[in-house]
Design brief:
Elements: H1 8-18, H2 20-25, H3 40-43, E1 46-52, E2 64-70, E3 76-81, H4 86-101, E4 106-108
Parallel strand pairs: 1-4
Antiparallel strand pairs: 1-2, 2-3
């Protein structure tokens, strides 16, 4: 012998939500865990920079490519450059790396002219 009424499912859910024993003994995991997302601090901790060129002139008169590669995830950011100057490199690091991902802990370069401090 069974029982049924139109709002039976809703009434059972409401009862279980108000019942202290049901709440205490209920399984705490009601959904699968989220995918593991690495914190950005870990992901963009070490970056390698490389300037390639001169290449064949593009339609925008660009001759060089400045690229940054994340050593942890291998993610790359790159921009075309008409000329390689310290100012262009600094602007790229500021706008494409620091503003998006934060300050990297390590920066690895080939010690080329645009990466020199003085």
């Amino acid at each position: 012998m069974g029982y049924y009424w139109p709002t039976m499912v809703k009434d059972c859910i409401d009862y279980a939500r108000r019942c202290p024993a049901c709440q205490f003994h209920a399984n705490l995991i009601h959904q699968p865990p989220e995918h593991c997302i690495l914190p950005l601090l870990m992901a963009f901790r070490c970056l390698g920079f490389r300037c390639c060129g001169p290449l064949t002139k593009s339609s925008g008169s660009h001759l060089y490519i400045l690229a940054a590669t994340n050593y942890f995830s291998k993610w790359a950011e790159a921009v075309p450059l008409k000329e390689v100057k310290k100012e262009n490199v600094a602007d790229f690091i500021r706008t494409h790396i620091i503003y998006r991902y934060g300050v990297p802990r390590y920066i690895i370069t080939d010690n080329g002219k645009p990466f020199a401090i003085a």
